[in-house]
Write a structure and sequence with these properties.
This protein has 315 residues and is an all-alpha fold. It contains 16 helices and two strands.
Length: 315
């Protein structure tokens, strides 16, 4: 019989797959408990994965495809157990002064960083619009990934793996060059204070306007305050725009580009990143995209693994 006429069920539900999923679920919960303590998010993640895995063939393929993003999230979450300031000194004054030197704005007899300038020159309209842009930093990449999953599995895998690779490159920089965000200087000065909690900074104005704790709840879950460079907020839309252009999405790419510029601006406006951090984020994205394309072109092993993965999740 022609294999193309045989229904592709991907990973079948049998004793082996049940055992593997159960062991991985338990191992994740146990490891999380000892590394970062129990959180309801962990149990929710396990429940979602198991429900979608067992519910049907299409949902199983979907969750197996998005396991790439789950792995990224787990790595990011586990960074809480290994603060980067335990491995290298945190850069505070040097990056603040360098930002002033390169991008300083003269305002009322003072030289301010762009963050400091916008802190005293913002308005409600910009607060709201910038907050909307910053809320796009995860939904837009994940929404685009979902589109690619149903439209083009090969491109979905390439986009997802590029996304994870860019994050891993960013994590390496986080640990080799710990850096404080602009709001840290505004609230704590130029001296290092370990165990500093995350802060919504300028995004608190968005929360206040809508009488909500949207950004407060997001930043309460942050893995590390001293991980401002590179700005991965600034990296993600670059990856989306690149794959949007590659997939010839037309007018949708204009939307992606506007979101990208909006996120870059908001990162600085809300005092979460210096311009230097944003430029580092853009550079990290370009580096990750180029490195993935190079590996894909040169590595037969990677090409074969992608083909095998695609067979598992193809509809």
């Amino acid at each position: 019989m022609d294999s193309s006429s045989t229904p592709n069920t991907g990973i079948a539900i049998n004793s082996k797959s049940i055992l593997v999923v159960s062991l991985l679920s338990i191992a994740y919960l146990v490891l999380s408990y000892f590394l970062i303590g129990y959180k309801s998010d962990e149990l929710t993640l396990v429940l979602i994965f198991n429900v979608l895995f067992y519910l049907s063939v299409p949902t199983r393929k979907f969750i197996l495809g998005f396991t790439i993003f789950i792995v990224y999230w787990i790595i990011f979450d586990y960074m809480k157990a290994f603060p980067n300031y335990n491995f290298n000194p945190v850069h505070i004054a040097d990056i603040y002064n360098f930002e002033k030197q390169l991008f300083g704005i003269h305002y009322r007899g003072q030289l301010l960083t762009p963050n400091e300038y916008w802190r005293v020159n913002g308005n409600t309209f910009i607060d709201v619009v910038s907050g909307i842009f910053y809320l796009c930093w995860i939904p837009v990449p994940l929404g685009f990934a979902a589109y690619l999953f149903f439209k083009n599995k090969a491109q979905f895998l390439r986009f997802s793996l590029t996304f994870v690779l860019v994050n891993l490159l960013g994590f390496v920089v986080y640990y080799t060059f710990p850096a404080a965000p602009p709001w840290y200087v505004q609230y704590h000065g130029l001296l290092f204070h370990p165990l500093t909690q995350g802060n919504t900074a300028g995004l608190a104005k968005f929360d206040a306007y809508f009488h909500a704790n949207i950004f407060k709840s997001i930043y309460a879950k942050g893995s590390n305050v001293f991980a401002a460079m590179p700005s991965l907020h600034s990296s993600y839309p670059v990856i989306v725009v690149y794959y949007g252009i590659k997939n010839r999405l037309g007018i949708v790419n204009v939307f992606f580009a506007v979101v990208m510029l909006g996120i870059w601006f908001t990162a600085v406006y809300a005092s979460h990143h210096y311009v230097l951090d944003v430029l580092a984020g853009i550079t990290t994205a370009i580096t990750g995209i180029s490195l993935f394309n190079l590996l894909l072109a040169k590595s037969t092993w990677l090409q074969q693994r992608l083909v095998s993965y695609e067979r598992v999740i193809v509809q």
